[in-house]
Amino acid sequence: MKTFAITTALALLTSMVSAAPAPASPGAPYQIGITFIGAAEGKFTQYFFTNGYGSGIYDPLSVSKISNPGGATCYFYGIDGSFTVVPSGATVDVGPPQTQTYGYCYGS
Q1: What is the rounded distance in angstroms from the CA atom of residue 69 to the CA atom of residue 35?
Q2: How far apart are CA 19 and CA 41, in angstroms?
Q3: How far, in Å, are 13, 18, 20, 59 from residue 8 at the CA level?
Q4: Percent of the chain whose pLDDT exceeds 90
Q5: How far is CA 95 from CA 37, 89, 99, 107, in A?
Q6: How far apart are CA 73 and CA 21, in angstroms?
Q7: Of 37, 51, 79, 101, most Cβ neighbours within 10 A?
Q8: How would residue 13 be classed by pLDDT, with cut points 50, 70 and 90?
Q9: Bridge partner list, 31
Q10: What is the pLDDT of residue 20?
């Protein structure tokens, strides 16, 4: 009975894990890694689809620059109302520096 219960529990856990959607892999051809840069060397990178699909940004870093390695033009909204356009291959100042909340990119 104990073996049956353990086997059943493992089968249930396995099915739950395999049913979860796999996250998109960073660097896939349809994504671009955008780096958000703040003061004192603070920074983070988040991946965005290049088909215009928007994504929330949940890092609280006050961003002063946004860097785009190329492959898409991206658009970002800040918590205090900023709107920043970052062309393909550019690094752009965010003025005034602020936490970013939402962004989207279109492939070029």
Answers
A1: 9
A2: 39
A3: 9, 15, 19, 40
A4: 67
A5: 13, 19, 11, 25
A6: 28
A7: 37
A8: very low
A9: 49
A10: 37
Query: How buried is residue 94: exposed, middle or buried, by Cβ count under 10 Å (0-12/13-18/19+)?
Result: buried
What are the CA-CA distances from residue 36 to residues 12, 18, 62, 72, 79 (Å)?
Answer: 40, 33, 9, 16, 14
Dump pLDDT digits (tens) for 35-77: 999 988 899 999 999 999 999 999 999 999 999 999 999 999 9
- DSSP states along 54-105: -EE------EEEEE--SSEEEEEEETTS-EEEE-TT-EEEEEEEE-EEEEEE
pTM for the complete prediction?
A: 0.72
Please check whether residue 50 is in contact with residue 30, taking contact to mean a CB–CB distance below 8 angstroms. yes
Q: Of the candidates 25, 59, 26, which has an alpha carbon nearest to the alpha carbon of residue 43?
A: 59
Residues in the chain: 108
